[in-house]
From TrEMBL:
Residues 1-19 form the signal peptide. Belongs to the UPF0047 family. This is Secondary thiamine-phosphate synthase enzyme. SUPFAM superfamilies: YjbQ-like (SSF111038). InterPro entries: UPF0047_YjbQ-like (IPR001602), YjbQ-like_sf (IPR035917). The lineage of its organism: Eukaryota, Fungi, Dikarya, Basidiomycota, Pucciniomycotina. It holds the Pfam family YjbQ. Keywords: Signal.
C-alpha cells in the first residue's frame, strides 16, 4: 500500500478519535469508537508504528466513553459508594463533592438529587459544625423508635424493623441547588448519612445532576 494511502488512513483514524471525544450523545460516541476499533484492529491498513498510536488513542476514546456514559443533555448520573460507617449520623458532604468532581464544578446552574438505595439507612441535611447535633439526632431517633418495642420483623436482628422504620421517618433523598460549580448549602448545612444498623455497612447513593 502506498505511503499516501497509509497517511490518509491514519489521518482518518485520528479524525474519528477527535469526533468521538467531542460527540455530545453517547450513541454517537460509541459508534465512532467502534469505527476506531475496527480501523485500529485491522493491521493490514496501518503500519506497525501507526497501529500502536491508533490503539493508544482508541483506549483514550473508550475510557472517555465510559466516564461520560451516564451524561446526557447536560445531565449526569452516577452511583457513589460510601465508605462503611457504624450506627449513627455522619457528615458526608466532602465525600459526595469529591465523588462528583468535575461534573459538579462544570455545572453553572442546576440541582443535585441524592437517593440512598437502602431501607435501613437514610439521608438528610443537618448541622455541619457541632458533632453533638448528630449524636443528639441519633439518640432521639432511638427514643422515638426503640428496639424494646414488640417488633415482628427481626429476621436480621433486633435492629431490623427499627432500621426500616427510622429510614421511613428520615427519608431516602435530598435535593441541593448548584451554582457556579458549588453546592449552595447554607453556612451550617451539611449532607448527613443516617446509619441505623449496629454493624458498619457500605452504602450506595445515586447522584443525579440536572
Amino acid at each position: 500500500m502506498s505511503s499516501s494511502v497509509h497517511s490518509l488512513l491514519f489521518r482518518t483514524h485520528l479524525l474519528a478519535v477527535s469526533a468521538a471525544c467531542t460527540a455530545t450523545e453517547s450513541a454517537q460516541r460509541h459508534l465512532l469508537a467502534k469505527r476506531c476499533f475496527d480501523l485500529a484492529c485491522d493491521a493490514r491498513l496501518l503500519r506497525p508504528s501507526q497501529l500502536v498510536l491508533a490503539r493508544l488513542s482508541l483506549q483514550h476514546v473508550r475510557a472517555y466513553c465510559r466516564s461520560t456514559m451516564s451524561s446526557e443533555g447536560g445531565r449526569f448520573q452516577t452511583t457513589i459508594r460510601l465508605k462503611s460507617r457504624p450506627k449513627g449520623c455522619h457528615l458526608i458532604t466532602q465525600e459526595v463533592t469529591e465523588a462528583l468532581g468535575d461534573h459538579l464544578k462544570s455545572c453553572k446552574i442546576g440541582m443535585l438529587h441524592l437517593f440512598i438505595q437502602h431501607t435501613s439507612a437514610a439521608i438528610t441535611l443537618n448541622e455541619n459544625y457541632d458533632p453533638d447535633v448528630r449524636t443528639d439526632m441519633d439518640r432521639v431517633l432511638d427514643k422515638i423508635v426503640p428496639e424494646s418495642f414488640d417488633w415482628k420483623h427481626v429476621d436480621e436482628g433486633p435492629d431490623d424493623s427499627v432500621s426500616h422504620t427510622k429510614s421511613t421517618l428520615v427519608g431516602p433523598s435530598v435535593q441541593i441547588p448548584i451554582g457556579n460549580g458549588k453546592l449552595l448549602l447554607g453556612t451550617w448545612q451539611g449532607i448527613t448519612l443516617c446509619e441505623f444498623r449496629h454493624h458498619p455497612h457500605s452504602r450506595r447513593l445515586v447522584a443525579t445532576i440536572m
